[in-house]
Amino acid sequence: MRVCLLRHGETAWNAQGRYLGRTDLPLTPAGRAALGPAGFTPALVYVSPLRRTAETAEILFPGAEQSAIPDFREMDFGVFEGRSWRDMEDFAPYREWVDSGCRSPVPGGESMEQFCQRTCAAFEALMDRAAEAGEPLLAIVAHGGTQMAVLERFALPRRDYFSWRGPLGGGFVLDGSRWREERRLTLLDTVGDWRGERE
To answer: Which among 10, 55, 74, 152 is annotated as catalytic?
Structure first.
């Protein structure tokens, strides 16, 4: 089984360097223009409940059915939501969070551990169903956080959380043939610009 784990395209807050978690923003015109059909269309693509992933999937995989996975939503950034690091340079809770390696609980939001646990549990259940059904392809359009959480836990070669963040509209292609025996994915390709270049 091949697994395509992609990040949504650009929103206004991405362009402005603002933390974007639970806020349901659409793609910007520039974000839409930067995307194009992937060159193949799976019968079904999995997205988060947030519109930026659905809009991206519609452009990448026109005509594909979409299924929203609630726990694929981005991390809840609590009081940091909608603010940039520049806005919070002197904000003590933000400094404490950064000093923890961004792993402590966000005030009013989630900790990295909570986020990774819910995201990885949802991914694991989806992979188990796809492997049991013998699906040849699993296409997911979600968030940078989704990529980082899933791939830090399951992907080879092993990398730390932050090194797995793909570009807007891009991501990773992985081999899932070892999933049932080892619960591992093997990196095949990094996708920086998904515009009809893959078969």
So the answer is: 74
